[in-house]
Amino acid sequence: MSRRLEVAPAARGDIAQILQASATDFGEGARSRYASLIAAAIKDLLEDPERPESLDRSELRDGIRSYHLRHSCRRAATG
């Protein structure tokens, strides 16, 4: 089953700004590591959108969940 993860336009803009700030403040290596972490989190969510670490946020809108990047740290580090 193919899953689709929607990243809102505002979130895409936030990610771009965060990555730029990471590069400016901490260097290109830090930006690259953070981008890998974000990619790992997206992959994790595509594999299991209701993974135990994610939180139901139906108070915002039906079907909305939140997920903290820290839950994907080990997977980002191992590829």
Structure description:
The protein has helices spanning 9-26, 28-47, 73-78; strands at residues 55-56, 65-66. The model has no long low-confidence stretch (mean pLDDT 89). Strands 1-2 form a two-stranded antiparallel ribbon. The protein is mostly helical and 79 residues long. It contains three helices and two strands.
Jot down its keywords.
79 residues, mainly alpha, 2 strands, globular
Summarize the SSE layout with pairings.
Blueprint: H1 9-26, H2 28-47, E1 55-56, E2 65-66, H3 73-78
Antiparallel strand pairs: 1-2
Brief characterization of the structure:
The protein is mainly alpha-helical and 79 residues long. It has helices at residues 9-26, 28-47, 73-78, and strands at residues 55-56, 65-66.
Query: How do the SSEs run, as a string of H and E?
Result: HHEEH
Rg, rounded, reads: 14 Å
Q: How large is the count of helical segments?
A: 3
3D shape: globular
Main sheet attributes: strand count, strand direction, barrel closure: 2 strands, antiparallel
Report the sheet-strand fraction. Answer: 5-15%
Helix content: 55-70%
Q: Can you tell me the residue ranges where pLDDT is under 50 for at least 5 consecutive residues?
A: none
Query: Between the first and last Cα atoms, what is the distance in angstroms?
Result: 23 Å
Q: SS-based structural class?
A: mainly alpha
- Mean pLDDT across the residues is 89
Total beta strands: 2
Strand order of the largest sheet: 1-2
